[in-house]
Amino acid sequence: MYLNFDKNENILIVNLSGELDHNSAEEVRVKIDDRIDRDNIEKVILNFSGVNFMDSSGIGAVLGRYKKISNKSGQICIAAPNKNVNRIFELAGLYKVIKNYNTVDEAVRCI
Question: Which part of the chain is the STAS domain (predicted)?
């Protein structure tokens, strides 16, 4: 799993690439949390366009970031998941609490 961070005004955009599974979930948690805390971020877009596989550990990593941002009264959303990752989010019921956007640009405009 490779992470790349972009900042658009007060929004942290996390570009994920690779597999978000039990091998990478902890590293993803630590790196995103560190960036949220260091830059006092309250709005996060998780760009899933480069993620080709995700398991339940990935769901846990996303939910954990949702809780962290929610505790700061912030917002988090998912952008550009592929068909398989989108299905996992749907089955897990994550879209009941986290918004999904087709593109990062759309997410930036709406968050």
Answer: 1-111
List, for residues 9-24, the tens digit of each pLDDT value. Answer: 899 999 999 999 999 9
Spatial contact of 29 and 65, defined as CB atoms under 8 Å apart? yes
Rounded (to 5) percent helix, strand, coil in the chain = 45, 35, 20
Q: Which domains does the chain have, with CATH numbers?
A: 2-109 (3.30.750.24)
What confidence tier does 33 reach under pLDDT thresholds 50, 70, 90? very high
Q: What are the E-state strand segments in 1-111?
A: 2-8, 11-20, 43-54, 75-79, 99-101
Helix, strand, or coil (residue 27) = helix
Contact criterion met (CB below 8 Å) for 45 and 104 = yes
